[in-house]
Design goal:
Elements: E1 9-12, E2 20-26, E3 29-37, H1 41-54, E4 60-67, E5 75-79, H2 89-98, E6 104-111, H3 118-136, E7 139-142, E8 145-152, H4 157-166, E9 170-176, E10 180-187, H5 191-201, E11 206-210
Antiparallel strand pairs: 1-7, 2-3, 3-6, 4-5, 4-6, 8-10, 8-11, 9-10
Helix pairs in contact: 2-3, 4-5
Length: about 210
């Protein structure tokens, strides 16, 4: 599952509005998995609707989506689209979560081949369809970032920059008044570590505000 220690997950490497497809066959039924990058339930449902229009003669257009990171307070869901409950969308979603893929929707378009697969067969077929697609789907690594503001004395700026760089953070903006006010960005997973290190290094002579 999604690693809370690295804060990393993968997302489809697709341009806006683009999709990726992969076809498998099980007992003469065709299962065509279409993948797209999405950031909301509405986008996932719109993607499913577009494939219904594109393939109106298909038996089913089953959906699974994760509109954000694979874990956490993310909007996710699935739709069996007429298949027996729990035999299509849920196993599709399970594959996406297991492979740590976020910001993704997958619709499996099925053309019935005349041979009934049974509930267990459907679970395996839909899961395998998404699994096979994930093997070749272009993906990029995503690292959730967080922004914050630090207020400190001039004398502490160089130490601050050194500690920030050590946690792969960066400075977005600096304002110099009677104090130094620095807008920063760093991997969200590093926030607690950075806060502890910088507070210790500067002996508490810093104020931090995080944009949650």
């Amino acid at each position: 599952m999604f690693s809370q220690t690295t804060g990393r997950y993968r997302i489809p490497d697709l341009s806006s509005g683009a999709s990726f497809e992969w076809e498998t066959e099980v007992k003469r039924s065709r299962f065509i998995a279409f993948f797209s990058r999405v950031s909301s339930r509405a986008e996932a449902l719109s993607f499913q609707k577009s494939l219904r229009h594109q393939f109106p003669d298909a038996s089913h257009h089953c959906l699974a989506f994760i509109a954000g990171p694979p874990e956490g307070n993310t909007v996710l869901g699935f739709d069996d689209d007429g298949e027996p409950g729990g035999t299509a969308g849920k196993p599709m979603l399970n594959v996406l979560q297991h492979r740590e893929i976020g910001e993704v929707a997958v619709v499996v378009v099925r053309y019935f081949g005349g041979i009934k697969l049974g509930a267990g067969g459907l679970v395996r077929a839909y899961g395998a369809s998404v699994q096979a697609g994930c093997e070749v789907l272009p993906l990029i690594q995503c690292v959730p970032m967080i922004q914050g503001t630090a207020v400190l004395d001039y004398a502490n700026e160089q130490v601050f920059r050194h500690v920030l760089e050590a946690v792969a953070g960066k400075i977005i903006k600096c304002d110099y008044t009677h104090e130094v006010v620095i807008l920063i960005e760093l991997p969200e997973v590093s926030r607690n570590n950075f806060t502890s290190r910088i507070t210790e290094s500067l002996k508490g002579q810093i104020t931090l505000y995080w944009q949650d």
